[in-house]
Amino acid sequence: MMVKMDDLTSPQSHLRVLAQAGHVRQALELAAALEITPDFSRLNLSNTDLQGALLANINFTHADLTRANLRQVDLTHADLTGANLQEAMLTRARLTGARLAHATLTEAMLLRADLSRTDLTQARLVRADLIRATLFGADLTQAWLTEAGLRGANLQGARLHNTTFTDTDLRGANLHNTDLTQASLYRAVYDRETCWPDGFDRQNSGAIGPGANLQGVDLSGAYLYRVDLTDADLQGADLSNAQLFWTCLNRANLTGANLTGTDLTGVQYNAETCWPDGFTPPRSSPG
After folding, report:
1. Which residues are CB-neighbours of 131 under 8 A, at least 6 positions away?
2. 89, 102, 225, 271: least surrounded by Cβ within 10 Å?
3. What's the structural domain count of the chain?
4. Residue 279 falls within a domain, yes or no?
5. In a domain, 244, yes or no
């Protein structure tokens, strides 16, 4: 029997109409029944609730998924190139092998999400929450992770060439065997549990943590809650109006540092901590 071209294209068009009208789950059910993969590219799916949905291999290129509920969804090998996922909820989502190049994930929630081998080149993950996320082998070349939370995240083998980690929380993150060539770690925070690539000079990388060389660095207004600055060299650093709540400054050298307006609530230090001349430190808190 001869099949008309319209008969081949109309099911896909019907799926798109359903999805655009807010009936995405019905569209997915129909696609499964027809054994076709939906094309949701460039659709406005903002605020859609798709928690737990099976979305593997679907085309979401340049789709608007702003504030969508995508908790525990399966987006394995889905194409989200250029998609807008700002403030989307992706907790425990599975994005293994997905394409997210040039995607916007600003303030997205990706707690414990699986982004293994995901393409995130030039993606915007500004203030995204990736606590304990898996980014094993992911490509984050030229991606922006400014102020992102990567505490306890697994980035083993990830490509991080020219990636921006400014003000990012890397405490407990695993960066073993990663490519940090030309990556910006300015004011990123690390701790003793952070795992770096072999031979990487974290102390002179611009990142903040134990033993860091921060001589003359501008940390004005920085929020450093419970950061470990043991043995850090802060000579001449600008810490004006910075918030060092419960920060550990044991054996830190703050000679010549600017502490104008610095909040040292709960700060911990010892007899080997060096303060600016004439500065009277507050009472030290127990470690």
Report:
1. 111, 112, 149, 150, 151, 152, 153
2. 271
3. 1
4. yes
5. yes
Q: Going by C-beta distance under 8 Å and a sequence separation of 6 or more, which residues neighbour residue 21?
A: none
User: What pLDDT, on a 0 to 100 scale, did the predictor assign at position 133?
Assistant: 98
Count of other CB atoms within 10 angstroms of residue 276? 16
Phi, psi of 149 (to 5 degrees): -105, 110
Angle between helices 24-34 and 5-20 (to 10 degrees): 150
Span 99-111, pLDDT tens digits:
999 999 999 999 9
| Rounded Cα–Cα distance for residues 244 and 227 (Å) | 8
Domain carrying residue 258:
208-287
Residue whose C-alpha is closest to residue 142's, from 158, 162, 126, 168: 162
Q: 189: closest CA among 174, 176, 207?
A: 207
Look at residue 181 in the predicted model and tell me its pLDDT. 86
Asked if the structure places residue 120 within a domain, the reply is: no
Amino acid at 87: E
pLDDT tens digit sequence for 122-180: 999 999 999 999 999 999 999 999 999 999 999 999 999 999 999 999 999 999 999 89
User: In 3D, which of 169, 177, 128, 127 has the Cα closest to residue 152?
Assistant: 169
CA dist., res. 164 & res. 149, Å (int): 13
Q: Is residue 14 part of a domain?
A: no
CATH number, residue 281: 2.160.20.80
Specify the 3-state DSSP secondary structure of 10. Answer: helix
> What 3-state class would DSSP assign to 274?
strand
Whether the per-residue pLDDT at 4 is higher than 70: the answer is no
Rounded distance between C-alpha atoms, residue 286 and residue 268, angstroms: 6
